[in-house]
Amino acid sequence: MEILAEFFNGYFLWRDPMIVGAVTGAVCGFLGVYIVLRRIVFVSAALTQISSFGVGLAFYLEAYSLGAFASLFDPFSLSIVLTCLAALFFALKRDFSRISQEGVIAFGFLLASGAVVIIGDRITKGAHDIANILFGSAVVVDQTDVLIIPSVALIVFVIHIIFYKDFIFVSFDPESAKLFKYPVRTLNTGLLITIAVMVAVATRALGALPVFALLALPALTSLYITERLKLAFVISVILGILSATLGYFFSFILSLPTGASMTVCASVFFLLALGWRELRAR
Fold first, then answer.
1. CA distances from 150 to 20, 138, 251 (A)
2. What is the model's pTM?
């Protein structure tokens, strides 16, 4: 009880990061259903790491003041630019000769992961920030994040409400969509761009690890619980919010790493779904 009283008395400390985490969990949970059903989970992993690389590169440019480049890009804008370019590449480029698309995505993930670690090792001033964007530490978030992330989330939700039937159609029956003259490539690109933008803004605030977890695990859990698509979206959104908020709560009261706590909470929900499904099968 004393721990809970201390937590609620310190609401001014956790209010902003809890808002950011809940909004991110909701949107990532929603987008994650597309990611899991389209079997592009590794794309989301690559995008989170490329977003991390954009943030790390911005810190590097700032630390070494490399001419005009240091003032042209801040972590937020550079992360969005690189993540969106990667999403465009994955959406539009499908023929890689002898290399599969999965292999190219794996290459992008590994290259970005290695590059951000190397950049972090080269920077002394921003070393702590580099660790945060890799593993997540939303103990404190910038005031700009409290405004930017809900704004981006609202725009993403509006786009998906408007194009919901179109995104569903081209995602799960692209051949029929082509027969009905749907702009399949444009819609697929638009879907990936919305994912990329949300990944970019969320990674800067929460870190790559929890963002990837919130994109994958709530959706996996919801799709394991139900086969009804609309219900899966609702459950995934709820689980995304719970994973982020409970993860932050436990990290706050137990002094745990925030990103890891969110990831573990999302994993626990998935394990509970597995257990529930097994019990129902007996």
1. 7, 16, 22
2. 0.86
